[in-house]
Design a protein that fits this description.
10 helices; about 65% helix; about 190 residues; Hypothetical protein af1432; mainly alpha
């Protein structure tokens, strides 16, 4: 599957601009980690791009991810991509454990990209000048981006074998590469 084919699937199933941006951020982070961890950049990027493509149609567990997996299988998508998508949801871990680098990375970047996006949106300079210390500080405020599971962010970094600070920096750097499409360029 090409990136263009994946984008077409995403556009067919996702109307929400904010969800599309989230998936673009996760794609960028997955591509970044593919380079760092020796993964297939295109495969990892597509896994990030498609990981929540079924969420608007199926918001509840276990349909979310499982119904999407059915659609992707019909379209001949690589099982490694489908397995990564399935493994990012807790309810699929018995069958799709996070035992491969692509699966660990997708879980690790998903919540963190959402949190960084929320933090960037309240900063006048958006991603520009953003540092891990600021994200770590915001993580201590439960009311900020309350839906984001902080424990998933920290356990994601641990599963990758890197410090939380390095993990945050990696995701910020990755998201900077797509700041324009994310709507996170510096204002003013």
């Amino acid at each position: 599957m090409t990136r263009d084919e994946a984008w077409n699937i995403l556009c067919e199933h996702v109307q929400s601009d904010s969800l599309r941006k989230h998936m673009l951020a996760v794609e960028a982070a997955m591509r970044h980690y593919a380079v760092l961890l020796g993964g297939d950049i295109e495969q990892w990027g597509i896994a990030g791009l498609l990981h929540d493509f079924d969420y608007e149609q199926w918001t509840e567990a276990p349909e979310h991810t499982r119904e999407g997996a059915k659609i992707l299988r019909v379209r001949g998508v690589d099982e490694e991509i489908i397995g990564a998508m399935l493994s990012h949801a807790e309810w699929n871990l018995d069958e799709y454990p996070r035992d491969r680098p692509i699966r660990k990375a997708l879980f690790a970047v998903d919540e963190l990209c959402g949190f960084i996006m929320a933090a960037a949106l309240v900063r006048p300079t958006r991603l520009e000048g953003m540092e891990p210390a600021g994200i770590k500080k915001k993580m201590k405020t439960p009311s900020f981006a309350a839906a984001v599971k902080r424990e998933d962010i920290t356990s994601g970094a641990e599963s990758l074998g890197i410090s939380l600070e390095d993990h945050i920096r990696n995701c910020i750097d990755a998201m900077k590469s797509v700041a324009g499409p994310l709507g996170l360029t510096t204002t003013g």
